[in-house]
Amino acid sequence: MPLWLQVGLSFFVCGVVIFLMWRIPRRGDALFDWAPPLALISVWAGLIALCASATLWVLSAPDPWIASVLLFLDPGAIGAGVLVLWIYRRYDSVEHTVDYQILQAKVGIVLGLVAVAMGYLFIFTHKPPGTMVGILP
After folding, report:
1. Could you report the per-residue pLDDT of 33-88, keeping only the tens digit for each?
2. What is the pLDDT of residue 109?
3. Predicted pLDDT of residue 136
4. What are the DSSP calls for the chain, one per residue?
5. 119 versus 48: which is more confidently predicted?
6. Closest-CA residue to 112 (of 64, 80, 68)
7. CB 67 within 8 A of CB 5
8. Could you give the CA distance from residue 36 to residue 97 in angstroms, rounded to a whole number?
9. Distances in Å between the alpha carbon of 119 and those of 4, 90, 113?
C-alpha cells in the first residue's frame, strides 16, 4: 500500500473517531472528576514529549527512543487533552477552573503536535528512506 494512501486513511479514521466522539450523548457529570488530572497530565506529557523530541537531535544513538517518544509520549499528551475537551463538550461553565482546564488541554495538544512534528522532522532528515526506525543497527 502506498505511503500517501496509508497517511490519508489514518487521517480519515482519526477524523471519523473524533466526529463520532462528539456525537455520543452526555451522561451528566459522570466523568467530570477525570478532567482535572487529565488536563494536568496533558500539559506535562506535552512538555515532556517536546523535550524528548528535542533530545533526539542531540543523542548519539536515538533509534531506541524514537518509537517510545512517537508511540507513547506524543499520543498520551494529545489523547489526554482531547479527552478533557470531550468531557467538557457542550458544557456551559461559570467557573474559571473549567476554563483553565480547557486551556491546559489545548496547550497540551499543541505541545504534543509540535513534538510529533519535531520527531517526524528528525526521522525525515536523519534516516534514509526505507530503513527501520526504532531498531538498533
Report:
1. 888 999 999 999 999 999 999 998 898 888 888 888 888 888 889 989 998 988 88
2. 93
3. 56
4. --HHHHHHHHHHHHHHHHHHHHHSPP-TTTTGGGHHHHHHHHHHHHHHHHHHHHHHTT-SS-HHHHHHIIIIIHHHHHHHHHHHHHHTTT-----HHHHHHHHHHHHHHHHHHHHHHHHHHHHHHHS-TT--SSS--
5. 48
6. 80
7. no
8. 9
9. 19, 34, 10
Q: What is the pLDDT of residue 137?
A: 55
Question: 124: which 3 cell numbers?
Answer: 525525515
Amino acid, res. 94: V
The reported pTM is: 0.80
Q: Is the distance from CB of 45 to CB of 61 less than 8 angstroms? A: no
Residue with cell 480547557: 102
Give residue 5's pLDDT.
Answer: 77
Contact 126, 73 (CB under 8 A): no
d(CA 137, CA 127): 12
